[in-house]
Amino acid sequence: MEKSRKFSIQLPENEYRFLKQIAAMQNTTMAQLIRTAWFEKANSLSAMEDIETKLSALQDLAKETAKSEQLGELFKENAKRQKRLYQKLIDIEKALGGKSC
């Protein structure tokens, strides 16, 4: 059996009465109501952390994809520049009468 510890919390009177009413409506004890709420909150926080981790990974992937696309464009631009330079060299060679530089 799991070890458990007791603890007490202090609530303002209106919150205490509200929790007592909710517990009575759900036919449970206030302790069980608080325990259940505590675990639900912990589970939802865990789920949110998981979602944030996955979202962060997707954002990183999107950044990497964008970088890859930028590199691809850069290579295309460099290839075009090289082609233009090569064409200029051919034009210069023709202007010089077919002599190599």
Can you lay out the helices and strands and say which pair or pack?
Blueprint: H1 13-25, H2 30-95
Compact description:
It contains two helices and no strands. With 101 residues, the chain is mainly alpha-helical.
Structural descriptors:
DUF6290; 101 residues; Ribbon-helix-helix protein CopG domain-containing protein; single chain; mainly alpha
Structure report:
There is one protein chain. By secondary structure, the protein is mainly α. It has a domain at 13-71. The chain is built from two helices and no strands. The chain is rod-shaped and about 105 Å long. 0% of the residues are buried. The model has no long low-confidence stretch (mean pLDDT 86).
Shape: rod-shaped
**Cα-atom Rg, whole angstroms?**
35 Å
Average pLDDT, rounded to a whole number, is 86
Judged by helices, strands and strand pairing, the structural class is mainly alpha
Q: Report the helical percentage.
A: over 70%
Number of helical regions = 2
Order of helices and strands: HH
Number of strands: 0
End-to-end span in angstroms?
A: 90 Å
Main β-sheet description: none
**In what range is the share of β-strand residues?**
under 5%
**Unreliable runs, pLDDT <50, ≥5 residues?**
none
